[in-house]
Amino acid sequence: MKSTIASVLITLTFLPCYASEVFAAEDPKATAVIVPAERWSNVFGDQEVTLHFRVVQRKEKPAVDGRIQWHYSANQRTLARGEAEIGRDDAAQAEIVLRIPEVRDGVVFQTELTVAYVPSGKNSATATLTKTLWLFPEDPFVDQRETLENRQLTLFDPDGRTAAQFEKIELPHRRIRSIAVLENGDEHSYLIVGEGTSLIRNRGLAERLLSFADAGGTVLMLAPSEGVIPMPGEVSKKGDIKDAQPGELRFRRHHVIREFDKRLDSEFLPGPGGFAGSKVTLRTRLNRIGMEVSEDGDWPWVTVDYPETKGRFVFCGFNIVENWNRGPAPRYLLNRILTSRPES
Questions:
Q1: What pairing do the DSSP bridges indicate for beta strands 190-193 and 153-156?
Q2: Nearest alpha-carbon partner for 329 in 158, 136, 162, 93
Q3: Do the beta carbons of residue 209 and residue 193 sit within 8 Å?
Q4: Could you give all domains of the chain from N- to C-terminal order, each with its CATH number?
Q5: What share of the chain is helix, strand, coil (3-state, %, to 5)?
Q6: Where does residue 172 rank: exposed (0-12), middle (13-18), buried (19+ CB within 10 A)?
């Protein structure tokens, strides 16, 4: 790496996996454990949710044969309870259908589902699992639209999918059709690049976005489809002009979502497929380092900060618009991004 970016702090953040489920049967003497099939914990209020749990024996014998007892509660108050037989015929898997209570706008509510396995012929459980379910209202921007209107959000969205979603949820913004009309950023400017935008078809876009952030603006790039983002601070092709010097580059994985809000699902969502749609990988080409964007890259989150101007460039590889209806996490992540910054 050239000396021109020697002053830049590049942080690669690795964090241990977060486990939303707490196993009460981790005692090595326990004969069985309960494993949840669903790895997510966020649900909308006032809906029906189906969850699956499997009993796994630590030893081959005895085989799973007994009953599952479950108890759904909030603030130590029982909301529902039930019991079901479980054994070899159903692959030791139990299905629990919950009716999720309604939640008020602006309120995120914690509930707990406790599942116990009681073997046939016994009166006490040999395995217990408590799973936290966070209940969210469907509208993440209640009482915040006026504040966001004051932020004067500008949207560049060539294919219109992000613009259509913003219109549907009544998110205040001004859409521009060409990046050429964009003025230099300042500390009051906020530019969003629509999800799926191609950096190849929009030549020069990445460089323009970094310049906008260097001037003091904030850039949020939502999961671009392809292309290369130049490494900020490298010498330009002319050799006598230096790009803007950022103060810090940070590369993070899905754990960054929990830095915005520890209650949000960060990796798994209801339904097939993951959350991250595009990621960056550091590549060297023609003696220059760049951040290559692809579906199977390394980092779904990158921030470039310019402390002197208070500007920031954010690469968000999570498919927020595409996954808008796959649980609360996508839409509440957008809310947290637009209204705050992750913890340092």
A1: parallel
A2: 136
A3: yes
A4: 3-16+140-339 (no CATH), 31-136 (2.60.40.2550)
A5: 15, 40, 45
A6: middle
What was the pLDDT predicted at 265? 97
Rg (CA), the chain: 24
Compute the Cα dihedral for 192, 195, 198, 202 and give only its sign. Answer: negative
What's this model's pTM, rounded to 2 decimal places? Answer: 0.88
d(CA 196, CA 157): 9
Q: Where are the beta strands (DSSP E) in 137-278?
A: 153-156, 174-176, 190-193, 218-222, 227-230, 248-252
Dist. CA 9–CA 250, nearest whole Å:
8
Q: Which residues of the chain have pLDDT under 50?
A: 1-8, 14-26, 235-241, 344
What does the longest C-alpha to C-alpha distance in the chain come to?
A: 82
Instruction: Provide CB contacts within 8 A for 116, sequence distance 6+.
Output: 34, 68, 69, 70, 125, 127, 128, 129
Q: Rounded to whole angstroms, how far apart are CA atoms 170 and 190?
A: 17
